[in-house]
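Bench notes, afternoon.
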Amino acid sequence: MSKEVKSISFTVFLLIVFGLMAWEASTFADLAKFFPFFVSIFAAFLALVSIVLQSIELKKKRNEESDHDEDIDKKALTKYILWVVGYIAVTYVVGLILATILFLLLFLLLESKFRVSTSVLCTTFVIGILWIIGNALNLYWPEGLLGITIF
């Protein structure tokens, strides 16, 4: 499986996740569903556009190159899907903000091989932006099963 096919497969997975998020958000009360519903619809639309563009690029590439067999490497695709599923599971347990901090630090350190200082800086920047958006829009970030809130 080529890198492009893996990328399309992962984007299809994200499209399914965003579709399920929109489906779930549609059951919320009218005032509560506005933000999550339209964010998930927008994200699903972007994922769909990405799938179309990646498919066109893959078709052009395959027309230019001769077909040759590649080793099927589902390990990398599975690893990234597990990162996303793990983030969702940790969000369910400890809440969105703490899960985002843990996810970003671990992903940037382990997967992206960033230095500790760069990982902390990037995580601080993202959490700062979330804090600004949360205060500007008066958002209450989801708590997990443990009821931990940071801000």
